[in-house]
Amino acid sequence: MAADPGRTTEAAPERRDEDEAQTLFDNVDVDRFRDSWQGIQTAFVDDPQRAVKEADELVAVVIQNLATTFADHKKELESAWSHGEPATEDLRIALRRYRSFFNQLLKA
User: Fold this and answer.
1) What are the two backbone dihedrals, phi and then psi, of residue 86, each rounded to the nearest 5 degrees?
2) For residue 94, what are the contacts with CB-CB under 8 A and spacing of at least 6?
3) For residue 58, with 0-12 CB atoms within 10 Å meaning exposed, 13-18 middle and 19 or more buried, which class applies?
4) Rg (the chain; Cα; Å)
5) ∠108-9-11 over CA atoms, to 5°?
6) Secondary structure of the chain in the HEC alphabet?
7) Which residue ranges does the record annotate as region Disordered (predicted)?
């Protein structure tokens, strides 16, 4: 079926922008994790076994950091909603944030 020339497809780029606006980690954390990873890769030449052990530990730290971020976000939402029924707009924003989080996890 041919595309309708009068139809716009702006929703997809807008959604991608929203997804990219939310990040899983602060830039400082990203830089720290990347620096650690670079050090691990460099150390592999001299001590491969230690480098793999450190890589495992770093990945565990990144996953824990991600879990903490998610738990904090969930706590924030639950706290905001503990004062009664949340407004539809608040729920829409929450769902957008979850979508962003979800899409970033799948991109990783």
Assistant:
1) -70, 150
2) 77, 86
3) middle
4) 20
5) 55
6) CCCCCCCCCCHHHHHHHHHHHCCCCCHHHHHHHHHHHHHHHHHCCCCHHHHHHHHHHHHHHHHHHHHHHHHHHHHHHHHHHCCCCCCHHHHHHHHHHHHHHHHHHHHC
7) 1-23
Q: pTM of the predicted model, to two decimals?
A: 0.68
- Of 27, 17, 28, give the one whose Cα is nearest residue 99: 17
Which burial class, exposed, middle or buried, applies to 33 when counting CB atoms under 10 A from its CB (0-12, 13-18, 19+)?
A: middle
